[in-house]
Design goal:
There is one protein chain. This protein has 406 residues and is α+β, with helices and mostly antiparallel strands. Helices cover 22% and strands 35% of the residues. It contains 4 helices and 25 strands. A hairpin with a 5-residue loop joins strand 20 (266-271) and strand 21 (277-280). The protein is elongated and about 145 Å long. The chain starts with a helix and ends in a 24-residue tail after the last helix.
């Protein structure tokens, strides 16, 4: 019985794990590598010369540790001395720590040059003897003096929809750079949305054009990209070749025009008193009187025009109208000629009557004095004051003279 108990004790001793191994398991649970770490976003940065760079960074460490020191360094290899960038004369005036002592380790580096092209790491030390951690690999910084900008945009957008344009750079700009947008080389200061995006809401046809972008503070402008805005027909109208009045048997041509994108290719013609179409095509030949209108169509919709009036007149009516016009003109001309002739005649008579009394008197006297007359007869017919011959006149030659008595 005692032997069995001794074997049992030996088995219990052999099965119990040693105390140091239990302690190691506990240490491993506390200091797991999952509790230590540094995360960078992004891990590679391309910056423009003389610009500012913001490096986003977070870090974690085990519970129970307290941060005693933290810093950034450009010597990330283990075992090498890790100088603090904030104490480096080349960086101290340009380096700014934006994080805290909890889990944020974000920094800003200003006025970068090509000498700043390195891998940068964040390192922190806790109050424990083994509480040291370096976030490796770190952030790789590339600095360039030249860069490319490109606008990414759909080729076309339908009127009323939203569209977003993106200004892409060969460098991943992380300093919240300000982008400037242009349409047809004119700046769009009122439409600056997001960091590198331009959002056009409820697009109108006026938004169509060539778009380009630039970075504030830099002269480089991206190549322009054409944005087309499609919309249904608008401002549909009908034009008439001629006056709209035609003779029976002839025709008048109507032409339908509209503003649309893409251009309208389908046109339908209607007469106001008919429900079905009377023709198709951009032009239409009207053979009868009535009011006609057209409808223009593209894949985005349609619109109808206002109606125009076409008048057809018979040839006999046209002939009568023409004869009436000619006769009327002839009558007017005849009346004018008669009136003019009478007026001229009255004018001439007025001039003759003004000079007639003196002329008639001279004529009568000339007749009477040229005839052989006697003194008594002349006196009896005309009186002593009418046609009295002047002295020394040849009339006295015909009058017999009395003989003087001796």
């Amino acid at each position: 019985m005692s032997g069995e108990m001794g074997v049992a004790k030996m088995m219990s001793v052999r099965m119990a794990p040693p105390l140091p191994l239990i302690f190691l398991f506990m240490i491993h649970g506390v200091f797991s590598e999952d509790d230590w770490g540094v995360s960078y976003s992004p891990s590679h940065i391309c910056a423009l010369k003389n610009s500012s760079v913001i490096v986003s960074c977070t870090y974690t460490y085990p519970t129970g540790h307290q941060i005693r020191k933290m810093f950034w360094t450009k010597n990330c290899e283990k075992g090498e001395e890790s100088p603090d960038l904030s104490e480096d004369p080349e960086y101290s005036q340009r380096f700014q720590y934006l994080g805290d002592k909890q889990q944020d380790c974000t920094i800003r580096l200003s006025h970068v040059t090509q000498k700043d092209e390195h891998m940068y790491c964040f390192r922190f030390i806790t109050n424990r003897t083994d509480g040291k951690w370096t976030g490796y690999p770190g952030v790789t910084l590339t600095v360039t003096g030249d860069f490319d900008l490109q606008v990414q945009s759909p080729e076309r957008v339908t009127e009323g929809h939203n569209v977003s344009l993106t200004c892409k750079s060969s460098c991943a700009l992380t300093d919240r750079a300000t982008f400037i947008w242009y349409r047809n080389s004119q700046p769009l200061t009122e439409r600056r949305d997001g960091n590198n995006q331009l959002l056009l809401q409820s697009v109108r046809r006026e938004d169509a054009g060539r778009y380009s972008c630039a970075l504030h503070g830099h002269t480089y402008i991206s190549p322009a990209v054409q944005l087309s805005v499609t919309y249904p027909p608008r401002n549909v109208s009908v034009s008439i070749t001629g006056s709209g009045e035609i003779v029976e048997g002839d025709s008048v041509t109507l032409i339908c025009s509209s503003d649309s994108n893409p251009p309208a290719l389908n046109f339908s013609w209607f007469k106001e008193d008919q429900s079905s179409s009377v023709g198709s095509g951009q032009s239409f030949s009207a053979l009868q009187s009535g009011r006609f209108y057209c409808e223009a169509h593209n894949q985005h919709g349609s619109q109808r025009s206002d109606a125009v009036t076409v008048t057809v007149k018979g040839r006999l009516v046209i002939l009568y109208i023409s004869i009436g016009v000619v006769c009327g003109a002839a009558v007017i001309i005849t009346v004018l000629l008669i009136c003019g002739s009478r007026w001229m005649k009255k004018r001439n008579n007025a001039q003759i009557n003004h000079s007639r009394p003196h002329h008639d008197k001279r004529k009568t006297c000339d007749v009477e004095l040229n005839e052989p007359v006697y003194e008594n007869k002349m006196a009896a017919q005309h009186g002593s004051n009418v046609c009295k011959p002047e002295p020394n006149s040849h009339v006295y030659e015909n009058i017999p003279r009395k003989k003087r008595r001796k």
